[in-house]
Specification:
One of its GO terms (cellular component) is membrane. This protein is mainly alpha-helical. It has one domain. It has 6 helices and no strands.
């Protein structure tokens, strides 16, 4: 094992520790809140920008402010919901289970993050470096990255290849 393998293991361990600290409910709710925030902002920023036409003169500033405002509002709502659900979990006495499942979720997230980082690094000259070939773990994460990309819709895959 070389230093790259230790970084890979450290990334997964750190992600798992964050999962333990936050618990499954907060982790899943956080991910869902970010997806919802970006989707809501993407689909509804124009409507809010139109309402801001009296306050902000420049259309680009209006759209940006509307997008950011919608993202922040959804994130705040998600944080409030997360606090309520976590308090409910604590009251019911499922904190240990929540934390254990949070660790599993965090570890899985770490694996996905490392796989995507390895896949993206493979698009650079990095694979020609001896550190790459000497790594014990990189080949496994290349396979995982390929598998994850096989799950992506064809139009997104085509866009990724253009980058």
């Amino acid at each position: 094992m070389n230093w790259v393998d230790y970084i890979i293991l450290g990334t997964i361990a750190l992600s798992a520790l964050v999962g333990v600290a936050r618990g499954l409910i907060r982790e899943v709710l956080s991910l869902g809140t970010w997806v919802a925030a970006l989707a809501i902002a993407w689909f509804f920023h124009q409507e809010l920008a139109d309402l801001l036409s009296g306050q902000l003169a420049h259309p680009l500033v209006r759209k940006g402010a509307a997008f950011i405002a919608l993202v922040l509002l959804v994130l705040i709502a998600g944080a409030i919901l997360g606090t309520v659900l976590t308090a409910l979990i604590d009251t019911v006495g499922l904190t240990g289970v929540d934390r254990l499942l949070g660790m599993a979720f965090g570890g899985a997230r770490g694996v996905v993050l490392v796989a995507m980082a390895v896949y993206l690094a493979a698009l650079t000259p990095a694979p020609s470096d001896p550190v790459w070939s000497e790594s014990t773990l990189i080949s496994d994460f290349e396979s995982i990255g390929q598998w994850l990309l096989s799950l992506t819709p064809p139009e997104l895959e085509a866009r990724l290849k253009q980058i």
